[in-house]
Amino acid sequence: MYDIIIIGAGPAGLTAAIYGKRALKKVLVLEALSYGGQIINTLDIENYPAAAHISGFDFATNLYNQAKELGTEIKFEKVTNIIDNDDIKKVVTSKGEYETKTIIIATGADNRKLGLENEDKLIGKGISYCATCDGNFFKGKDVAVVGGGNTALEDTLYLTDLVNKVYLIHRRDEFRGDPTIVEKLKEKDNVEFVYNSNVTKLISNDKLEGVEVTNKDGSTKELSVSGLFVAIGKVPENENFKEIINLDESGYIIAGEDCHTNREGIFVAGDNRVKELRQLVTATSDGAIAATEAVKYINK
Which positions are annotated as active-site residues? Predict the structure, then answer.
């Protein structure tokens, strides 16, 4: 019997574990893949208070080690279901079942796909969702990035030092991301902006050879690229909980700043909940709040 089971070992989940252990609770973290979540792919974190320059990998590793040193139990098992029996709840995984007094869902969000034919088949053969992970495979080649937020802008900036040319494709005529990054990109000789356009076709022969881009005026053109980095947002990882937890129309868990869900004793933390700002600092904040609320629930 655990006091708190946390689903997800990203910044929100690991922060929740730290707060839970510091409150002397028995804590289990369940993670399907590897610790760190999406932040592990960030080359340089510049906006986290008092840690102006640290890689996402180092940040996540420090957080993981901190949670482990406090005595957090961490198991790498995919959670497939949760069962709410009021005071006692059950978490079902690919390997077994665990009972707990409270649950914190901190599953984060996964990469949103373009939804084009052969997209899945070309993953690892020209299509990537992580420039810092796969950029080195395209040294000296022409590539494209699709998206208009900070991730797309940061991916493009990172790739400029590796590749021959980067096409930055965005469906609007201005970017949603940080204007300072946009200005940096405008100074780069090997970046070409493709505004008001969507990628509508993947051109391939076993591996990616190019993309078809359609402008909002209906005109199309082909870009010869070896790599396409997709950065068009995230999809919350809440599918396995939709029968028990209230979700909004986009699949995010409905919860306020107190991280309470519609179920007593079940909380949410991180990018998978309804919120205005999805950043590292808000994920760790959620983790602290959710764990504190879980402890209050247990003690009550």
Answer: 130, 133-134
Last residue of a domain, one of 199, 230, 261: 230
Provide the domain limits for residue 247.
2-111+234-299
Q: What is the pLDDT of residue 278?
A: 83
Domain shared by 23 and 162, yes or no:
no
Q: What one-character DSSP code corresponds to residue 242?
A: T
Asked whether residue 214 is assigned to any structural domain, the reply reads yes
Same domain, 30 and 72: yes
Residue 173 amino acid letter: D
Q: Are residues 288 and 269 in the same domain?
A: yes
**What is the domain-level CATH number for residue 251?**
3.50.50.60
CA distance 293 to 264: 11
Say whether both 139 and 179 belong to one domain. Answer: yes
Predicted local confidence at residue 151, as pLDDT: 87
Burial 195-230 (b: 16+ CB within 10 A, else e): eebbbeebebeeebebbebbeeeeeeeebebbbbbb
With a cut of 90, say whether residue 111 has pLDDT above it: no
Round to whole Å and give the CA distance between 205 and 223: 15
- For 119, other C-beta atoms within 10 Å of its C-beta total 15
CA-to-CA distance for 28 and 300, rounded, in angstroms? 21
Domain count, the chain: 2
**Token pair 């764990």: residue:** 291
Judge if pTM exceeds 0.85.
no
Task: Looking at the structure, tell me whether residues 94 and 243 fall in a common domain.
Answer: yes
Using 50, 70 and 90 to split pLDDT, how confident is the model at 265? Answer: very high
Q: Which residues have CB under 8 Å from 176's CB, separation 6+?
A: 148, 149, 150
Half-sphere exposure of 274 (CA within 13 A, CB side): 14
Nearest to 192 by CA among 168, 219, 225, 172: 168
